[in-house]
Amino acid sequence: MGHRSRTIALLAIIFGIALLYSALAATPPAGQSTGQKAAPASAPASAQDSDYVGQETCVTCHDEQGKHFANTPMGKAFSHPKTAAEKLGCEACHGPGKGHVEAGGGKETIPVRFTKDSKNSAEEKNSACLTCHERGNRLFWPGSSHESRNIACVDCHVGHTPQTKKLTSDSRFSAPLTDVHSLKQGQPELCLTCHQMRRAQLQRSSHMPYREGKVTCTSCHNPHGTPNPKQLIQATTNENCLSCHTERRGPFLWEHPPVMENCANCHEPHGTNNPQLLKVRMPRVCDTCHVSSRHPTTPTLLNSVRDFNRGCTNCHSAIHGSNHPSGATFLR
Fold it and tell me: Quick check: is 325 in a domain?
């Protein structure tokens, strides 16, 4: 009898649970009448709600710019996008174009313009570029001398100009234009547009071999900024110079202190009218430190015109440093 009672009670419990489940399943969500389908929790926004119109919309009017851009390195990269920014096409740089389209065009409705008559600041223009180009040798652009002087990327680079064979092999330029975005001019002409004093120095009789095509401005400097003085590629002036002039590196048993301190104590790297890029002629460059002579000679010869007009390096030929037993006189 007891076993039968337990069975009936168990069946009653199961039946009650089934009724409760059915009632819950039939109850519509709050605020929705029976027969309506519940909307997804996060329905995707429609394309009409986006501020981006797509590159296809841009080229319906800007077809010529689109053709030029397609042949640039950046345009070719955007044709096979790897990042979210590259998928935006034109709007990756110029900003969302919905307002421009709705206004029927017009320069003032483009969020970011890169032309000279643009009202966008250099910082706004550069922010568009740095969205992709913030690494590598542009890492120290914030705070660099060019950035602090409100230089825009487009002051030197042009994003819409294809790299043609004529542009990259122009004989007026000592270095071919192989940058990802074509430079407006080759080096050093582009740099000398602003750095006029260097133009005169590079034309002097003793000069960096830029006219011979052996060096460019970026052989020593990074125009996008470095943590080093003068935007040098290397940490110091000496490291910059010694990356080419390895025979001067040492270490030597007998070091010449001015040389160890800074090559620019004696040399003007961009060009002078003195031999060996010296700031002043021999022996005046030596007289900068060696004010009086210590030669064991007669009083009539000491500091005389004859002594002064002799070239110090006729005897002291190893002035950059020596390992010779003759010691710190740098005779050889």
Answer: no
